Amino acid sequence: MGDKAAGEPTWPPREVCDGGQCVEIGKRGESVLIRSSAAEDGRYIALSRDEWRVFLAGVKNGDFDSF
Question: What is d(CA 27, CA 9) in angstroms, rounded to the nearest whole number?
Fold first, then answer.
């Protein structure tokens, strides 16, 4: 994915999580990135800041509780 100057994603330092499979949040430029800590292939979802705010509002409102 290139170097940091070219927009390589940055992720917080890994911490041990319950069960070893956690969701990690990172960033690249103005994008918010979401990935599974268990995924070895490096894939992630990129959201704009506005999409991230809408997603968080949905989580707080319980929109995903039925999944």
Answer: 6
Bin 50: left if φ > 0, else alpha if -120 < ψ < 50, else beta: alpha
Quote the CA–CA distance of 33 and 46 in Å, as a whole number.
5
Residue 46: per-residue pLDDT: 96
C-alpha distances (whole Å) from 4 to each of 1, 19, 66 are 9, 30, 38
Kind and range of the H or E element at 45? strand 45-47
Q: Specify whether the CB–CB gap between 36 and 20 falls below 8 A.
A: no
Low-confidence ranges of the chain (pLDDT < 50): 1-6
Does this model's pTM top 0.85? My answer is no
- Tens digits of residue pLDDT in 46-57: 999 999 999 999
